[in-house]
Amino acid sequence: MKVELSAIEALAPDQASLKAAAGLKKPGKWSNMGMSSDSRLIWGACAGSGANPYLVMADLGDMGSKCTCPSRKFPCKHALALFWMRADNSLSFQPGEIPEWVSDWLNRRRKTTGTPGAPAASRPVSTEDQPKDLSAATLEEPEALEDPKAVARRAAAAEKRALETEQSVLDALTALEGWIHDQLRLGLAPFIDDVTARCRRIAARLVDGKAATLAGRLDELPARLLALPVGDRVRGAVIELGKLVLLARAFRMDPKNPAIRRSILSAENRDSLLENPDALRITSHWEVLGEKVETRRDGLVSQTSWLLNLGDQGPQFAVLLDYYPASAGKRSSVFTIGEQFEGDLVFYPAQQPSRAILLGRKSLESESLKWPSKPVANLIAGVAPHLYEEPWLVDIPILLPPGQIMMDELGKAWWQCQSGNELTQIQNDVAGPLQGTQLACAAAIWSSGGLTLLAAQTSWGRINCVS
Amino acid sequence: MSVEALYDQLDPILTRWTVGGQSGGLAPPAWEAMLTPSQGEERELQQLALVAHFLDLCVRPTPASEVKALPNLPVLSLPLVPEAQRPLVRRCLRNSKEQEMRRQMAMMLVARGYVLHPADWMPSAHDDAIPDVYAPWRDWLTSQASFGAKAKTAHEALTAENWDDWWPAARLAALRALRLRNPNDARSLLEAKASGETADVRLRMIECMAVGLSQNDLTYLESLSSDRAPKIKAFAASLLARLGRQSAREEDNAELATYFKIETKGIFTKTRSVVANVLKTPAQHASREAVFLRSDFEGFSKALGLSSLELIALWPFGTNEDVDYCLAALCERTASDGCFKALYDRIVKEANLPLPLVLALQGRLAKDQQQELAIRTLMSAAGTFWAAYQISGPNVDLTDFLKSARGQALIKACVAENDHAQNAQGLALIASQASARIALDHIARETGKEGSTTLTDPRFDLLRLNAALPDTGA
C-alpha cells in the first residue's frame, strides 16, 4: 500500500513538525521496523531522549497513527517520519509478524471506533499559518558563526552554575541529615505513623536544593516502608534512613562521582552519556525479565525494564529507566516480557553498572537462548559486592540458585535455596504454577531482605512472575 | 562475633530509636573505634549508617509459623499448547476479558487435543463446567487453599475403598469415566458412597447417571425419590420418566393437557394437530410454563389421549415458539430414548430451526446429531457461527458448508467492519483445523475490500490459533 507525499503534508499539524520529522529520517534512529503482510500496517522504534525508544505505528488504510512519545501534536514528528520513510522508501520495511504493541493498538482502535478502517478520530491541529512544505522541511539551515567571547562567557557561566548547584545540594544534604537525626530523636514509631507527610516536607526541601532524584526517593520511601509487615517497619525505617546518610556522606567525599550524582541530582542526558568515554557499550543478546510502571508523587510515571544478559560480556543485568508525565497518558510497553533480542546498550558509568539506555535492537534469528548458568551461591554472595560498593542501593537484580517456594500458614510466600534452609520473603504475588514446581533458576530484585521474583526457569519452562 | 550476637547488642539501640532519644552511648564495643567519640548528631548518624548496613546485609525477616512446600502441579493427560503458538494464546486470552470466553477457548483447545500452559491460564478450583482433563489442576488449587490438608494418595481406579483418597474434581472425573466404561459399577459406587457427600456434590455425581441409562438403574433412581435435596429428587424423577416410570403426578399432567386441544382440519383429508389454547395474561403463561416443569412426556401424551409418538407427529412446530420450546424441554428431560429420537427426526426436517428449540434438546443429542443440527442452523437465514457453536461445541468439519453460498455469506459477515467479534469467535471455536484454514483463506480474499476489516484484525486471532495448532488426531 502506497503513501503519497502530499498526504503527509496535509496530515502534518505544522511546518515545524515536518522539519522535525525530516531530522528523524536517519537509519541510526530507527530499529525494529516492519509491516504487515498486506502492507497496510507499518511500525518501528525511534530513539528518543529516554532509555527506551518510542514505539511508532501507522495504518496506511486511513492514515491513522500512534506514538508513545509525550508530544501533544497529532500526528507527532515520529509518526510523520514513519509515513515519510514509507513514502520515499528511504528505509526498508520488511513484512513480518505484527508485534503485540501494534496488535494492542488495533484492538483498542476497533473497540473505541467500532470500525478499524474508519478515518482517524481527530484532525491534525494546525498551530501556525506557515504553509506546509516537505521540500522546505528538508533544507538544512546554515550554521551561525559563534563569537569566541560569547563562547567563553557561556562556559564561565556554566561553571559558576555548577558550583552553585553543588553548594545547593550540600546545603540540602545538611538539612536532610538534620531531619534524619530529628526522626531518631523523636522516635521512629511516630515517624512511621506520619511517614508520608514528613517525607513530603523534606522532599520539597531537596527539590529546592536541586537534589531532584533524592527528592523522588524520599517521596517513594513511605510506600516502600508501609508495604512491609508492621513488625518489620522499624527495621525498614532504620535501613532506609541509614542508606540516605551513607549516600549523603558519599556525595560529600566525591561530589563529581557520576553514579553518586545520578542518585542525588539527575541522570546525565542521552547525548552526554553517548559522548562519555567511560560509558560501557555492550552488544549482546538480552532477555526481558520484567517491567514495572509506577505513577510517582511528583506527577511523573516511571517505566522500569529489567534485562538479563544472555552473553558472556558485560554486566549480568541492565535496567532501563524512563520517565514521562502522567498527563501524557498510558504508554504501551516497549517490550514483550520474555522476548529475547540482540541489543546495543550503553551503561551509565558506575562501580557496578546496571542502568543503561538502549541504542538499537533486532530480533533473534536463532532459537531461544538459555539463561547463563552462573547464579550466585547464596543471597549474601549475590548482594554483598553491590552493597559494599554502593551501600545506599535499594534494588539489586540477582540470579538465584535452584530453590523452591514455601508457604507459611498466613499465606505468605518464602524462597528457600535448595542447598540450605535459609528463607527469604517474597514480596510479590507468586500464586499459580510457581508454587508447585522447583525453580531451577530465578531472576529477582533483592530489596532490604526481601525478593521480588521477575521470572523463573522451571520444568514447565520459563514462567513470568510479574504481569 | 556471630551475627546473632551482634544483633542482640543492637537491640537497646533499636529500642531507643523506636521510642525516641539518643543512643550514642549504646554502641557495641567493637564499633567504638569507628565512631566519633563525642555524643551528638554526628555520632548518631554514624551509628545509624552502621546499623542500617548491618541490618540490610545480615538480618532478614523470618516466618512467624511453619512453612510448607506445596505438592508439585500435576502434568495433565493432554499435551500443552506448543510453544510456538503460546504468544497467540496469550493475545487471545488478553482479548477475552470474560471468564466464560476463556473457558470456551480452553474447551476448544481440549477438543483439538491440547491444554493451556498453567502460566497462561488455570481454571478456578470450583469451575465444574471445565473439561475433566483439568481436574488435577482444580484439585491442586483446592489443596493450595488448605494449608493443613492431608496429602492424597494417587490411585489408578476409583473404588469404594479408596473413595476418600481422591480430591473432589478428580473423583468426579473418574466417576464419569467409569460410568462410560461400566455403568453398573459406577452406579454401585454411588449407591455405596454418594449419601455421604453434600447435596451439591451429590447432584453432580448423580448427573452422570444420564449417560448409559438403563433399566438396571431403576431401583437406585427410585431410592433417590426420598433424597433430602429437591434438585436430586427432580433429576431422579426425570431419569425414571425416561425409563418409562411415570414420575409426575397425574393431576399435573392433566392440568397441562387443559392448555391444549386436538383440532381436526381439512374436508377431504382430515389432519389432526395439537393446538395450544390462546392465553390472555402473563400469569397464565407463567402457570403453563410451571406445569410443564412438573409434568412428564408420557403422562402428558396420555392426558391428551395420545401416545408419545402421536404427540410428536401431531405437534405443529413453528406456530408457537414458546410452547415448542417447552415441549422440546419436556421431551429432553423425561421422554424415552425412542421418543427423543422421533422428536429429533421430526425437527431436523423443519425448514426453520429456532435456536432455543434446538438448545432445549442439546443435552441429549449425540455428537453426530449435534453436528447435523449445527449445519442446519448455519444454513438457515438467521443462523450464525456462534449459534451453531452453542449446539455442537468445537471441532466441526465445515469444509462443505464453507464452499456453499450461505457459507460465503457468513464469512463476509465476519469480515464486515461493523460486525461484532462474536461471529469470528464463533467460527474460531466451532471449526475443525482444516475448516479453520479454509475459513482463513476465504477471509484473506474478503478483507481489504470496501466495508471490510483487515486480515490483521485481532478478531481473527483465535481462528489463526485454531488453524495453526498441529493436528493431534483428536
Highlighted features:
heterodimer, A: 467 residues, alpha+beta, 5-stranded mixed β-barrel, B: 474 residues, mainly alpha, two-stranded antiparallel sheet, 3 strands, 54% helix
Give structural notes.
The complex is a heterodimer of chains A (467) and B (474). Chain A has 467 residues and is of the alpha+beta class. Chain A contains 13 helices and 16 strands. Chain A is globular and about 70 Å long. Chain A starts with a helix and ends with a strand. The mean pLDDT of chain B is 90. Chain B has helices at residues 3-19, 41-58, 86-95, 99-111, 135-145, 168-181, 183-193, 199-206, 218-223, 230-242, 250-257, 282-294, 297-303, 308-314, 321-334, 337-347, 355-361, 367-379, 385-392, 399-403, 405-415, 421-430, 433-446, 461-468, and strands spanning 67-69, 260-265, 271-276. Chain B is built from 24 helices and 3 strands. Chain B is mostly helical. The chains are: A alpha+beta (467), B mainly alpha (474). At the A-B interface, α4, α6, α7, α10 and α13 of A face α1, α2, β1 and α3 of B. β11 of chain A pairs antiparallel with β1 (67-69) of chain B.
